[in-house]
């Protein structure tokens, strides 16, 4: 039997057992890591599980162009989950949402990936992180809780005196307990504002007049513990970020370009809320970093490289980030100071130790936005969804799931 490794959760009191990968006898660290070449592998057939020749994990291709069944159908160009920082699975992983390139919001069985049903909505909707039956939706003046299986909806707020409310837009997530969200919209006097809303108490927090910040509108999102709102702004070609309390007090201004961005928020082992992503400014340009929301302190996590997106959607398994790497392996092989990953998905510990696990070689070549990998884990970290054109630029972009929960854990490393 192949040895396996189990990633330990970083927060005290959280049970150990996370991402087990066959074929790895001991923890790997970035300082000793070398570029790994993907073994030859034909495109897996739709819904036919195969064994990853490099990790021993199971890979399943879960989308394919054309009809899937149960009224679901994928377009040819791409058919994928929404985004790296969007939770693809519901809280108990019984449902999986395919939102891009499908004929509506397409719901699959969360473990077999068989097509189940589809719905049509114009709202921005994200899974409730604790209630597996419901999604949190925002549109116009309305915030609601929606049950996809039955199509039932409960309106939580009708915001009189506002219009154009958006959940993010595009990158909104609720707080880790599902109580709070942040929305952005326009007040009746024309001011662009953001505010937090507590769904449990139906409480609206004060307006933050983000339109008075320099630049043009970006994304506003609530922090994992629900105490901060992070708003990005485009200022003279730079993507800057501003951190507010939910009461509207400004606590941080990150005026460097994308330092970081293309990432996600989580709580680290110290109990501090952090944003983990890719920096595009000195002194850590193109490195993976985490940055604390309360004081802006930066910790470098991985050296300069081709990391494109970061996800901490394994909300029940904090302490790790799932990274999508692009790039050309032949080029990365000539850059010994770069992170030794190309066309690969890895799990990286966010404590600065450099400990990581290889998840999958994506065999994905750069073509356009829709062909980006956008890897995202399930809430418990046992499954990772990622996208690939399987080496064909302009070819169909499929979604794949790497399953980690079936592997033997009897020899798991725990520390």
Automatic annotation (TrEMBL):
Highest taxon in the source lineage: Bacteria
InterPro entries: 6-blade_b-propeller_TolB-like (IPR011042)
Protein name: WD40 repeat domain-containing protein
Organism of this sequence: Bradyrhizobium cajani
